[in-house]
Amino acid sequence: MTTTPSDLWHHYGRTRAERDRAVPDAFRWNWGQDGGPGPEVLGDLSGLVVGDLGSGAARHAAHLVSHHEPARVVAVDASPGQHELAVDLFGHLAPRLRIVPSDAVSHLRAAAGTYDVLYSVFGALDFTDPPDLLSAAASALKPGGRLVFSTLAHYLGGAPAQPDVVASAVPAKTPEGEASTLRRWVLQEHVWMKVLDEAGFTDTSVDVLPSASEGPRVADTLLIRAVSVQGRRSDAGPAG
Ligand SMILES: C[S@@+](CC[C@H](N)C(=O)[O-])C[C@H]1O[C@@H](n2cnc3c(N)ncnc32)[C@H](O)[C@@H]1O
Fold first, then answer.
1. Environment class of residue 1 by beta-carbon count within 10 Å: exposed (0-12), middle (13-18) or buried (19+)?
2. Beta carbons of 165 and 192 less than 8 angstroms apart
3. Where are the domains of the chain?
4. What pLDDT sits at residue 220?
């Protein structure tokens, strides 16, 4: 017998959605969503196919289709609750915003060579086995395709990130409010560089975005950019 896993993201962003249904004016990468660089980090998106991995309520994706000129943004999220929230808030932005209920790894594996740009803001990259997700992302990117994501630079509370590809259990809640846990990968800079390299990315750069505020739940952010090696090889053209 198989059982459907509980949706541990059901409650995320729900309170905000009750009072704020607007397409955000800004797109931020940092943990506090209150400073640092914006969507310019993604480059010129005009005419490009863009994917948001672990898009939640799709606020970042809605911003991009409303304030930039991508051909489309595909907002992928595995949580039924987040998918429902995103469709309710931003379904009217279809067809340039496509809201897809799927695990990011299976979506990317079925989309070889589809995307110009993939990004994630504390999304699927933080909560999915990195080698699995990164190799699927490398193959879903077109020649020259770019991956950009933000992730925690250290644990909330200040403990250092992991020196190896190791997940930790973090608290979560079932839709019924029962306590549970989910896996989160909080990795040191050099560990991300290594897994990206092994998954088929090159030209990786990492910026640390310091927290713009103070308090017990604040955190610094790693903003990581990389280019698919498959893309680079195709750029170079056939040998001989
Ligand atoms: C912390 S929330 C961030 C949501 C959104 N990026 C934002 O900034 O508001 C993490 C999201 O990643 C999604 N997620 C985690 N692992 C995923 C996976 N493997 N595939 C698709 N979505 C995933 C969760 O369902 C959740 O909505």
1. exposed
2. no
3. 44-236
4. 96
CA of 160 to the centre of ligand 1 (A): 22
Question: Which fold is adopted by the domain 44-236?
Answer: Rossmann fold (3.40.50)
What was the pLDDT predicted at 1?
Answer: 60
pTM: 0.94
Among 75, 208, 30, 231, which residue's Cα sits nearest to residue 146?
A: 231
Cα 54 to ligand 1 centre (Å): 3
Residue 41 and residue 225 in contact, taking contact as beta carbons nearer than 8 Å: yes
The per-residue pLDDT for range 65-117, each reduced to its tens digit, is 999 999 999 999 999 999 999 999 999 999 999 999 999 999 999 999 999 99
Residue to mutate (ligand 1; options 76, 82, 107; most atoms within 8 A of CB): 82
Atom from ligand 1 closest to the CA of residue 133? 19
Q: Which atom of ligand 1 is nearest to the CA of 9?
A: 25
